[in-house]
Design brief:
The chain is mainly alpha-helical. It folds into two domains: about 70 residues, no CATH class; about 35 residues. Helix content is about 55%, strand content about 10%. The chain is built from three helices and two strands.
Length: about 130
């Protein structure tokens, strides 16, 4: 069985490679880079960390934080107003739904498209004509 040395991974990371960018038409070398796996890993990791830091700084130090829900930077007054507006919009939506249902039912009654008639007997008080 082959024995794996601890330094073999480090040696593979430090092996040098040559990256050449060539012009396809003339085969002229445009740019030449000497790279290793370790240097590529360091460059990509540094780029990721830099973008993460820039994104966090953009959120923390600019007014964008007030527009992101869940970040927690909202003003207490704005949060209260937002909740009141949401409740008001929901109640207006329910009122509109009930009015539309009423109008639809009224339209059905006026057109005579009701499926069942109300046949309940009404108990009206009898008029007393003794005053005449």
């Amino acid at each position: 069985m082959a024995r794996v040395e601890g330094n073999s991974t480090l040696k593979r990371l430090r092996n040098r490679y040559l990256l050449v960018v060539m012009n396809e038409d003339t085969y002229e070398e445009v740019v030449k880079f000497r790279l290793s796996r370790l240097s590529v890993y360091i460059i990509l990791s540094s780029t990721f960390v830099l973008f993460t830091i820039l994104t966090v700084a953009l959120i923390v130090f600019t007014p964008i934080k007030y527009y992101l829900p869940g970040v927690g930077y909202g003003d207490a007054r704005q949060v209260r107003e937002y909740r009141q507006l949401k409740i008001r919009a929901d109640s207006m939506e329910n009122a509109m739904k009930f009015k539309q249902q009423y109008l639809d039912d009224l339209k059905k009654v006026l057109e005579g498209k009701t499926s069942s008639l109300d046949t309940n007997k009404l108990d009206l008080p009898k008029e007393d004509n003794t005053n005449e």
